[in-house]
Amino acid sequence: MSVSGELTELKRLLSLGGHTLVWRVGGATGTSDERGIVPLIKLYDGGARGVIAADRIVGKAAAMIYVLLGAKGVYADVMTAEAEAALLSGGAEVCRGTVVGAIRNRAGTGLCPMEEAVAGLTDPAECVAAVKKRLAGLSGE
């Protein structure tokens, strides 16, 4: 199946299953119902590479992790233009619903903390380190 075909299938699974993330690596499909960027960090730390994914929200922070995951294709219901550019430059096929200028925090009062963490960064590895540091800070570690 082509990347486009897999993205269509994963998008269908995302919408039907009520998941926050659906991915495929080497023919195996996985899902997550966790909110935020944590499922992507788990995929990255678990050594997944060459993923094709359907996600609810992809901002720059998530896009940089997808680049390091060697994403072949990424669909998002909501995606920033900056995330789309990062994914395309990383070689991923991109499909998206709504394009937004920024990802807001859950309260809607400002930027998402993960987007704040990667603001001004251009190296994907630095972005992952910044996201992990911010996650640790948010969880009180």
Characterization of the model:
The chain is of the alpha/beta class. The chain has one domain: Hypothetical protein TM1506 (Cytidine Deaminase, domain 2, 3-Layer(aba) Sandwich). 44% of the residues lie in helices and 23% in strands. It has helices at residues 3-17, 38-45, 60-68, 81-89, 113-118, 124-138; strands at 21-25, 28-32, 52-58, 73-80, 93-100.
Quick synopsis:
The chain is of the alpha/beta class and 141 residues long.
Largest sheet: 5 strands, mixed
Unreliable residue runs: none
Shape: globular
Helix content: 40-55%
Distance between the termini: 43 Å
- Give the overall average pLDDT: 95
CATH architecture: 3-Layer(aba) Sandwich
Q: Give the neighbour order of strands across the main sheet.
A: 2-1-3-4-5
In the CATH hierarchy, the third-tier topology is known as: Cytidine Deaminase, domain 2
What is the H/E order? HEEHEHEHEHH
How many helices in DSSP terms? Answer: 6
Radius of gyration: 14 Å
Query: Percent of residues in beta strands?
Result: 15-25%
The assigned structural class equals: alpha/beta
Q: How many structurally independent domains?
A: 1
Q: Name the CATH superfamily assignment.
A: Hypothetical protein TM1506
Total count of strands = 5
CATH class: Alpha Beta
